């Protein structure tokens, strides 16, 4: 069957958000009296949700993890405050993303976001980036009981958009995106410019060096 719908990861796929995530994580560390971390190190913590990012950032230079402790809860609250105050200080859409998304939308394709980012950040970020209106479904990391690499978010998208696995393409930068797509039985495009570049990722159906190459791939399927 031909592709009728797309599910897009957010961080590292549509938007380069590392600078603001790193800023918020380091601000939370500073509040706790801890030294600042390199942005590249914080980038390696992205992909499994905010709780994981904050826990790893707070415990990066400590013997014990902050996970589940009162200090971790406080750090997460401080991260939330700092991040919400600066969602798009430096965060930008990757080249070609806005044009391509609008072209897909105008052509009648159904579009979804499937991210492990919590909804409290996802919705305002999409609005500030000016792309929230093109998505029919938005699945954040706390929308459902399970998140990527579990298949549940993609099954939810298929149900909401009334498409089969053969009609949906997942587009993402990490192994979680590829594993979720494989678990759901749909095709997957891997963007090589994202945060998953240093990961050992399973093979995707197509690899995109630039986001706008998605349109070329789509046209080649006809």
Automatic annotation (TrEMBL):
Could you tell me what reaction this enzyme catalyses?
2-phosphoglycolate + H2O = glycolate + phosphate
Q: Which UniProt key words apply to this protein?
A: Carbohydrate metabolism, Hydrolase, Magnesium, Metal-binding
Task: Tell me a Gene Ontology molecular-function term this record carries.
Answer: phosphoglycolate phosphatase activity
Question: What cofactor is this protein dependent on?
Answer: Mg(2+)
Is-annotated flag, keyword Nucleus? no
Which Pfam families does UniProt cross-reference here?
HAD_2
Q: Which residues bind Mg(2+)?
A: 9, 11, 173
Q: In which pathway does it act?
A: Organic acid metabolism; glycolate biosynthesis; glycolate from 2-phosphoglycolate: step 1/1
- The positions flagged as active site in the entry are 9 (nucleophile)
Q: What class of enzyme is it?
A: hydrolase
Give the enzyme's EC designation.
Answer: 3.1.3.18
Q: Would you say which domain of life the source belongs to?
A: Bacteria
Report if keyword DNA damage is assigned.
Answer: no
Task: Report the protein's function.
Answer: Specifically catalyzes the dephosphorylation of 2-phosphoglycolate. Is involved in the dissimilation of the intracellular 2-phosphoglycolate formed during the DNA repair of 3'-phosphoglycolate ends, a major class of DNA lesions induced by oxidative stress.
Q: Which family does it belong to?
A: Belongs to the HAD-like hydrolase superfamily. CbbY/CbbZ/Gph/YieH family.
Q: What is this protein called?
A: Phosphoglycolate phosphatase
Q: What is the lineage of its organism?
A: Bacteria, Pseudomonadati, Pseudomonadota, Betaproteobacteria, Neisseriales
């Amino acid at each position: 069957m031909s592709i009728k719908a797309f599910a897009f990861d957010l961080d590292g796929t549509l938007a380069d958000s590392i600078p603001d995530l790193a800023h918020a994580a380091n601000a939370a560390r500073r509040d706790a009296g801890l030294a600042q971390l390199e942005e590249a190190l914080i980038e390696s913590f992205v992909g499994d949700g905010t709780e994981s990012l904050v826990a790893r950032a707070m415990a990066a230079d400590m013997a014990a993890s902050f996970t589940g402790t009162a200090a971790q809860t406080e750090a997460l609250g401080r991260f939330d405050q700092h991040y919400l105050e600066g969602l798009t200080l430096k965060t930008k859409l990757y080249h070609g993303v806005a044009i391509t998304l609008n072209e897909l939308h105008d052509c009648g394709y159904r579009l979804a976001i499937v991210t492990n980012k919590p909804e409290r950040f996802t919705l305002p970020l999409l609005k500030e980036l000016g792309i929230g209106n093109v998505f029919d479904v938005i699945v954040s990391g706390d929308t459902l009981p399970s998140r990527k690499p579990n298949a549940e978010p993609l099954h939810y998208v298929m149900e909401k958009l009334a498409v089969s696995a053969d009609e949906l393409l997942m587009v993402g930068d990490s192994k979680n995106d590829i594993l979720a797509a494989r678990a759901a039985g749909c095709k997957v495009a891997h963007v090589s410019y994202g945060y998953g570049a240093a990961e050992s990722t399973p093979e995707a159906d197509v690899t995109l060096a630039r986001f706008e190459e998605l349109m070329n791939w789509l046209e080649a399927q006809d």
